[in-house]
Amino acid sequence: MQNKKIKVFIIAGEVSGDVLGARIMREMPDAEFVGIGGENMIAAGLGSLFPMSDLSVMGVIEVLAHARTLTRRINQTVDAIIAARPSVVLTIDSPGFARSVIKKLRHMPAGRKLIADGLRFHHVVAPQVWAWRAGRAKKYARTFDKLYAFFDFEVPYFTKYGLDTVAVGHPISDVVFGRHGARGGNSTEKIITLVPGSRMSEVKRLMPVFRDVAQQLIANGYAGYRFIIPTVETTADYVRRQTEKWSVKPELVPSDQRYDVYEKTYIAIVASGTVSAELAMLHIPTIVIYKMNPITTWLVRMVIRVKWVSLVNILLGRGVYPEFLGPAATTENVLDAVQQLTIPSVREKMISQLKMADDMWRRPDGAPAALIAESVRRVGGGQVKV
């Protein structure tokens, strides 16, 4: 019998997961990684099975439209896991795709044999059952062997059903709180940063709003303002083609330069998602917007159980960041919010509230990527026998 370093099949379905996946990989130089990821995980040494963008789909109608592609990718992923024979399948966000892959593995003879031989399923990012239906945690307890949540308040939802769950802190806090740049949202540069998201469906819906906001601001006397859009690999070409048609030309910068941009940002207007957490940690005055397919919007309204979608609003239990979702995501509403955020007293109040959340983002016992890596490494004692 020969000892071999641990093999991890890692899957990330969107940009934020790709960034965290790369950090986890760098924390485990002793491991062999195969799987699916984006530019960050590829730079860390992963040969992605297929483009990560194939998994960046959100919304009922959008998923149905891409059902054939997703089914093909599920089958391809299952076959790759069986061929790779890893010790751990580590999925990052995209819980729907992760559950579909694991469910199929559990129903295949080859998959059942891998599980009997010790294959374990670990998942990063607790599904937001507290926002939808708490009882849904039960199905995740049946799917995963271990769950890495970001916040303490999420843990009991899953441990209630016997799922080994640990809070590791928000991974973005490692980068944001470790930077030596300015924090506090007190930039004197009149930069408005626009972040349309990382999924093509959301970008297509939000870019017209961003265009109209930029053009009307300039027309209404904000002539000294500049607009910057950080772009991600999945949508950069589309954003570039669209902004070429704008009368107000924003500056486009790659995503890896976004923190330099954020630290100079006067006001940010962003898609709901991870970016709002980044900006909250940096204390940047921000407006959150989101548009979905009308049917998806209706379904969400029927089942959602929280007042807010932005993490900082949820953590603090108040509407620190203004949110305009669905039909409320109009040019007029955003322009009114921008005007409010040019008032010094309004800015100062928002920044003061953002600072109250600082200790909620981090854990004292280590960085998230390091905590996850150490837990994964313990599967099989850090080595796999073959």
Distance between the termini: 7 Å
Structural shape: globular
Largest sheet: 6 strands, parallel
Going across the biggest sheet, name each strand in turn.
Answer: 3-2-4-5-6-7
Q: What is the gyration radius calculated from CA atoms?
A: 21 Å
Q: Average the pLDDT over all residues and give the rounded result.
A: 87
**Tally of strands:** 14
How large is the count of helical segments?
19
Structure description:
Helix content is 45%, strand content 16%. By secondary structure, it is of the alpha/beta class. The protein has a 6-stranded parallel beta sheet with strand order 3-2-4-5-6-7, with helices on both faces. Helix 1 crosses helix 19 (368-377) and helix 10 crosses helix 16. The longest helix has 20 residues, at 200-219. It is globular, with a radius of gyration of 21 Å.
